[in-house]
# Entry
Amino acid sequence: MSAGTGQPADLQQLDHVWGPRPGFVGWLGQCNHKAVGRRFIFTAFAFLLVGGAMALLMRTQLAVPANDVLGPDAFNQLFTMHGTIMMFLFVVPMLEGFTIYVAPLSLGARDMPMPRLNALGYWVYLLGGLFLLSSFLVGAVPDSGWFAYVPLTGPDYSPGLNLDFWLLGVTMLEVAGIVGAIEVVTLVARFRAPGMSIFRMPIFVWSGFIASVMILFAFPPLVAGTVLLELDRKLGTVFYDATAGGDPLLWQHLFWWFGHPEVYIQLIPALGMAAAIATAAAGRRMAGRTAVITALVAIGILSFGLWVHHMYATGIPLLATSLFTAASFMIAIPSGVIVMAFIGTMWWGRIRWSAAMLYVVAFVFVFVAGGITGVMVAMVPFDWQAHDTYFIVAHFHYVLVGGSLFPILGALHFWMPKLTGRMLDERLGVVAFALNFVGFNLTFFPQHALGLFGMPRRVWTYQEGLGWDGLNLVSTAGSYVMGLGMLVFTLALLRAHLPGAPTAPDDPWGADSLEWATASPAPNYNFRSTIRVRSPEPLWDRRSTLGDRDGPDPDPPEWQRRIDTAESGLRQAVATTGLDARPDHIVTLPGHSLHPLWVSLSLAVLLVGVLVDAGVLAVVGLVGLVAASAAWLWPGVE
# Structure
């Protein structure tokens, strides 16, 4: 034992090597996956609250006919920013945050494979979000919808800075998403615990891996699309100008090539979250585990064949639309397999009910309802009638809230002990769940009828006597019930961080995956010794060696002893082979670094210079970007 620490000397050395530097500068320079993951999660939750407040303002405006709470310009701005925040600033960053935090623990790894790149992803995300929201401060809020259709967003119809804020900010957010996806793919490919073959990975890690591969194919086309539109706006190019040989439909193809896979990029990790919660609550492995993983892969592939079903009303030839209709129907098959697996897991298990599990049940119910209407709008004749009505608004909220928000709220309950060492209050959690579930269905179920009764989406007001009055009032009342539910949930989060909140045991759920094999919250080094896995459920299979639970390996090989004791003073981890996870070589990982922050700040300065046509500022940002990148890559420089 080391004097005065109460820890064995090897643990003290591990903690010293893997721990953060002291002070505020040390906090800024943290690159460990747990620090970066927590930052993503809590920043995304803050953006959720901002986007939710905007939704309440819009629903207040639509509560009664001819309301004047908001004018048309303010409504368009809130409509645009609400969608942008939820799609770009909340769901994907939240899911990436959970994957960054949980996946290395679930795989028995010490950290992400490129910690500094991981930190860069967060800083770019944060600055991109602040860049977008700063448009409120200068009165140039984006106002053309979160989809930014041309030619309305071109220089002729949107001459101000509004859309430049959107284009540049979204580009930063897409870059952050791509960076996170590269990290996750590399982690899964080479940083699994010895013995954790590809088919022994937890379903949540599978889901994060599949979504990350999808990001690498879906996000770059949107980056290309936003760059081309910014060139049209700033330099006078004509990529989307039909009068000069361009094609406005090119934007829709690029956007929806991103936009429809984006729905499944959000859904697939949320399915993995729900699977982890349901497995622990039922006390049994996921029913049809192999079929579920296969279905997730199938959804990831098929999702890239659906984008044109957002474009049925654009004059696409009917033969082409019939092919996309067939693809849209096909994706219901793997989705149905997954839903049946959840039902089977709950049916054959002995459920221990919690707020987290209630959100899983709500997810199954709401997602199935959204899937049914999804099949309806996949049919061309029906879509022609329902297109751009409130039926579509109801459909995609059932898919996105049921498929993403409810699993995320459940995951915050489930993994909060691992994040903070505290449990969320179950009583507040159940109250928040009831308010959110009831409020959500009161808000969006009536909107199906509003759409069928002819109410168009994206309108800021409507006349009395059209048959929409009562349904809109019910929808607005439901939004306030859901807003109250989110307020209660936020109070539960805050309470868990106050002194005196109940601490959590290391594994409060009796779960099966490796993140629960270490302390809650996890120590700086994650695991005391290298874990060896022999089962897809290592905590339920005592043949696996589990680091903190089993103590140090009494006779480790030399390479493992060096890693487990950190005797070199370096952050070292073992890289394993791709399929069967055999130990391959030792990797030395970087620790503290401010370079990701400097690179991100320089990029933000560059984009501000582009935004306001300030060439000097853009040059300063570009020089800073090159200098910070060179310092980052210079050997021996932290």
